[in-house]
Amino acid sequence: MKSAVLFVSEEFKEEAIALVEGANYKIVRIYKLPKSPNVKFYIQYDKLQQIKNDEEISTLIVFEQLKPRHFINLRKELKGKEILDKILLLLEIFALHAGSKEAKMQIELARLKYELPIIKETYTKSKIGEQQGPLGAGTYGVESTIKFYKRRINKLMKELENIKAFKEKSIESNKRNNIPSVGIVGYTNSGKTSLFNSLTGLTQKVDTKLFTTMSPKRYALSINNRKIMLVDTVGFIRGIPPQIVDAFFVTLSEAKYSDALILVIDSMFSENLLIETLQSSFEILREIGVSGKPILVALNKIDKIDGDLYKKLNLIEKLSKELYSPIFDVIPISALKRTNLELLRERIYQLTTQLS
Predict the structure, then answer these.
(1) Which UniProt keywords apply (predicted)?
(2) CA–CA dist 218, 221 (Å, integer)
């Protein structure tokens, strides 16, 4: 296991630690992000020197989006050590859990698009003699790399467009066959896959690490003799970078093209975090084009909740209806203990019947 030093704000500390450990790094030190980032390196210069001289540390992770110049200067200063910012860390986790060819293509596209400006700036500096190109190849080597990146990006974009077109035809076919689709959406680790398993009787991988579900899982289940296509989608994260949303459009579009949605919310969150999670969930759904679809909100993990469940339930119902319409219902459940799952199944049936 590679050892890493992590720079992160207090606000995202818990999430960042879960992500870094989910990417199989051992965190040996944690520092707060600087209030005034260093122009050249982003992190504080004295901390940089400590990392440089510490042979135990193999990776520097900055849980923020770095600029190309930061990467170039950090790589020059920390030769032999890996440099990751928030986006590259997320893409590394995605790559670890990618199951389908489509997911792997999306990850590669996002990585190439993100790295291209870094390569271009390296090219600019190599022309004026400030920076050697990748692998010491000089200006010609960087030019070749840029051309390769552009060709590969164009190819991947065309292939993903073809997948998108094929999926849309498949979805239209399901609609002609009168099979409604219901997408399960929500934040990573909210219990989406546990709910999918409980409703379908399947055993999709469930993990406390973030991003267990990397490509959507589909299963046709029968409720009161009505066939319904259930889809377990990729989870959201707080402050998801636009580059990730764009690159994962095809996967996230499972939610856009579903006839209805189940939004899973973790009831163990504090009231403030519940409010923040709801607001950002509906914001992400709007960003990917979800509008006017009925949503069933499932308040999950009620078996682990301390305090007033009904207070949280009322808060979720009131705020959901303020943020989005139509909200079909808000139901407290435990996917793991199967609490209220029959009620949820009945409400899914009623919802899909109204869609016909």
Answers:
(1) Coiled coil, Cytoplasm, GTP-binding, Magnesium, Metal-binding, Nucleotide-binding
(2) 10
Residue 140 pLDDT grade (very low, low, confident, very high; cuts 50, 70, 90): low
The two three-digit tokens of residue 174, written as one number: 């399901």
What topology is assigned to 179-353 in CATH?
Rossmann fold (3.40.50)
> Residues annotated as binding site for Mg(2+)?
193, 213
Distance (Å, rounded) from C-alpha 201 to C-alpha 117?
A: 46
Q: Which residues are annotated as a binding site for GTP?
A: 186-193, 211-215, 232-235, 300-303, 334-336
Mean pLDDT across the chain, nearest whole number?
86
Report the sign of the C-alpha dihedral through residues 148, 149, 154, 155, in that order: positive
> Which CATH architecture group holds 1-92?
3-Layer(aba) Sandwich (3.40)
Helices vs strands, H then E, count in the chain: 12, 10
CA distance 108 to 114: 10
The tens digit of pLDDT for each residue in 175-218 reads 667 789 999 999 878 898 889 999 988 765 555 454 554 455 78
Least trusted range by pLDDT, from 16-20, 71-75, 147-151: 16-20
**C-alpha 18 chain-centroid distance:** 13
Q: What would the mean pLDDT of 251-270 be, rounded to a whole number?
A: 87
Which residues are part of a known binding site?
A: 186-193, 211-215, 232-235, 300-303, 334-336
For residue 129, the Cα-to-chain-centroid distance in whole angstroms is 39
